[in-house]
From TrEMBL:
Name of the protein described by the UniProt record: RING-type domain-containing protein
CDD domains: RING-H2_PA-TM-RING
InterPro entries on file: Znf_RING, Znf_RING/FYVE/PHD
SMART domains linked to this entry: RING
Biological source species: Acrobeloides nanus
One Gene Ontology cellular component annotation held by this UniProt entry: cytoplasm
SUPFAM superfamilies the UniProt entry points to: RING/U-box
Alphabetic keyword roster: Metal-binding, Zinc, Zinc-finger
C-alpha cells in the first residue's frame, strides 16, 4: 500500500490508508493479491486477548517433565522448581515471565505458531477469510483429483 501512495504522489493520511486496507480486507480482494495482515496493517501488533492470557493453565515447574526447557529463554524447568509455567492450548509450556510479553505482542505460540484468540475484530476476520480460502483450495484440489484420477 505505501507504494501506491509513492507512485501517485499523494499525501499519506493514516486514516485514508486504514480505510483502504479495511476495504481490501472486508471485500476479500487482499486474497487475490496475496496480501498478509501485516502488509495491510503495518505497525499494528496483534496480541492475544488479555482474557485468554489470564485463563491459561498454570503449572508448577516441579510438575514439568524432566529435562524440559522454556523454548523462549532455553532455561530448564527443573532448575527453577518454584517457578510458575503457563501451558498454551497447544500444550507447550513456557515460563510465565517469558510468555506473557510474547502474547501481548503476538497471538501465536512461539514454538508451533498455533493461533490464540485476539480482541482485534479485523485480525479475526482476516483469520476467518484465510481459513475459508484454505478450505476452498482443498475442496478444489479434491475435486480436481476426483475428476482426473
Amino acid at each position: 500500500m505505501p507504494e501506491y501512495v509513492d507512485e501517485h504522489n499523494t499525501t499519506e493520511d493514516p486514516h485514508d490508508f486504514l480505510l483502504i486496507a479495511r476495504l481490501l480486507l472486508e471485500s476479500g480482494v487482499h486474497e487475490h493479491f496475496g496480501l498478509t495482515f501485516e502488509e495491510l496493517f503495518p505497525n499494528q501488533p496483534v496480541g492475544a486477548s488479555p482474557k485468554v492470557i489470564l485463563e491459561l493453565e498454570k503449572v508448577q515447574a516441579k510438575n514439568a517433565p524432566p529435562k524440559d526447557q522454556c523454548p523462549i529463554c532455553l532455561g530448564l524447568f527443573e532448575d527453577e522448581l518454584e517457578a510458575i509455567l503457563l501451558k498454551l492450548p497447544c500444550k507447550h509450556l513456557f515460563h510465565k515471565k517469558c510468555i506473557i510479553p510474547w502474547l501481548e505482542k503476538a497471538a501465536t505460540c512461539p514454538y508451533c505458531r498455533s493461533d490464540l484468540p485476539t480482541d482485534d475484530e479485523l485480525y479475526e476476520e482476516f483469520k476467518r477469510q484465510q481459513s475459508r480460502a484454505q478450505q476452498r483450495n482443498a475442496d478444489l484440489e479434491e475435486l480436481h483429483n476426483s475428476m482426473y484420477s
